[in-house]
Write a structure and sequence with these properties.
This protein is α/β, with parallel strands linked by helices. 42% of the residues lie in helices and 15% in strands. The chain is built from 15 helices and 14 strands. A seven-stranded mixed beta sheet has the order 4-10-9-8-7-5-6, with helices on both faces. Strands 11-12-14 form a three-stranded antiparallel beta sheet, covered by helices on one side. It is globular, with a radius of gyration of 22 Å. It starts with 7 loop residues before the first strand and ends in a 5-residue tail after the last helix.
């Protein structure tokens, strides 16, 4: 879900908003206010300054055994070390670094199409390539997609098995972000993969947020990744990296992926800042993710309790309990009204409970808005009472529906 906002408002003496800003000015102001808040559930990747981020990376590198490792040149050195670390974490033979996840997935699906002889990829209509990549699978890579279900959840084994059109690759986004960071059960996932195998299809995992899925499945990352033929992971979404992604899978497929990475323009001269930040995330954030997932359940339950206690006429916390450390909240207001109230709460109380709100689009009911809640390291300090108090303060800033 893109984090766009069409309008925001200047702060008046009460801290409330009443003068429109253009979109770029609004984003800058929001980033300053939310980034400078004393209390928040999670840090945003756009908080702080360039100097802050680079100093943090330099400090971490200085504390490592070899000052962060060798500088890279066209994918060697530190980038190779990162690739080895990712392959080990996922228990897969090899991994390849990519500057973007979009490129990594394009290459993965293109490689599998050549091996299966089918350009058809089965995925969810809310999957990232369908919603956020401008039709790149078809226009750039010559692939075609089919949808196994329109329900806002991952496809079932029956849907995989029963689809009428042949396909060469089943792509599973775990979790399915635009449906609410939703995951199947472990048994459902295993059965869907087995159904794909029955059709002689390969399985590719869009694991941009796979790092935080282990608590829900009750399995470690290696056992989850072992279900797939290839896995893509992101370094900035949950690990706090600057950018970058990795594709992991069999040695021969990864060798071909390196060729296509060059052809797609991803053979960048040096990428050590992204690689350093990814290694730092694997060391620091990856072990903490289970605690974020556990506390997200506390936060979600407290949000529900607060909405019920205040008599909020309609709301939705989805899914309940959260499958990862991220989930959705829905309220019956215009998105701009809710975004303005979120900003006003931070201006007046120094607390970030929610950030930007959005229309749910054609698939959602009219007259409501949705936001995404992430629980990270700062959120661990929030008690259930803290969450309920913040909800009451937030609702007090809204007009009566």
């Amino acid at each position: 879900m893109d984090e766009g906002v069409d309008q925001n408002v200047d702060e008046d003496k009460s801290g409330r908003s009443d003068q429109p800003m253009d979109s770029a000015e609004a984003r800058r102001y929001q980033a300053e206010v939310w980034g400078g808040a004393a209390r928040k559930l999670a840090h945003s990747p756009v908080e702080g300054t360039v100097g802050d981020r680079l100093r943090a990376l330099a400090d971490w590198a200085a504390d490592t055994e070899d000052d962060g490792g060798l500088l890279d040149s066209y994918g060697d050195g530190l980038v190779e070390e990162l690739e080895r670390r990712v392959a080990a974490e996922l228990g897969l033979p090899a991994a390849v670094f990519f500057p973007t996840g979009t490129m990594a997935q394009q290459v993965a699906l293109r490689c599998w199409a050549g091996r299966t002889g089918s350009p058809v990829v089965a995925l969810h209509p809310l999957a990232h390539p369908e919603v956020h990549e401008g039709g790149a699978l078809g226009s750039v890579s010559g692939l075609r997609t089919v949808h196994l279900t329109d329900d806002p959840r991952p496809p079932t084994a029956a849907e995989v098995r029963g689809h009428t059109e042949p396909f060469g690759t089943l792509m599973l986004e775990l979790p399915l972000r635009d449906a609410g960071f939703v995951l199947p059960t472990w048994d459902e996932l295993v059965e869907a993969v087995e159904a794909a195998r029955e059709r002689d299809a390969v399985v590719h995992m869009d694991g941009a947020r796979l790092w935080e899925c282990a608590p829900h499945f009750g399995r470690d990352l290696r056992e989850i990744a072992a279900l797939a033929d290839s896995v893509y992971v992101s370094f900035y979404k949950s690990l706090g990296g600057l950018s970058g992604a990795a594709l992991a899978g069999p040695e021969d497929v990864m060798e071909e992926a390196r060729v296509w990475r060059h052809r797609y323009g991803g053979q960048v001269f040096q990428q050590y800042p992204a690689a350093v930040s990814a290694l730092r995330g694997l060391e620091r954030e990856l072990p903490r993710l289970p605690s974020y997932v556990a506390h997200a359940r506390v936060v979600a339950a407290s949000l529900r309790a607060a909405f019920e206690e205040t008599g909020t006429p309609w709301f939705r916390v989805h899914p309940e309990p959260p499958h990862t450390h991220q989930f959705q909240v829905w309220l019956p207001y215009d998105p701009d009204v809710l975004t303005a109230a979120s900003l006003a709460l931070t201006e007046t109380a120094g607390t970030v409970l929610f950030r930007r709100w959005h229309s749910p689009g054609a698939g959602g009911p009219p007259g409501v808005a949705v936001t995404e809640v992430t629980v990270g390291e700062p959120g661990l300090a929030w008690t259930a009472t803290d969450v309920r108090d913040a909800v009451r303060a937030f609702l007090a800033l809204l007009p009566r529906p």
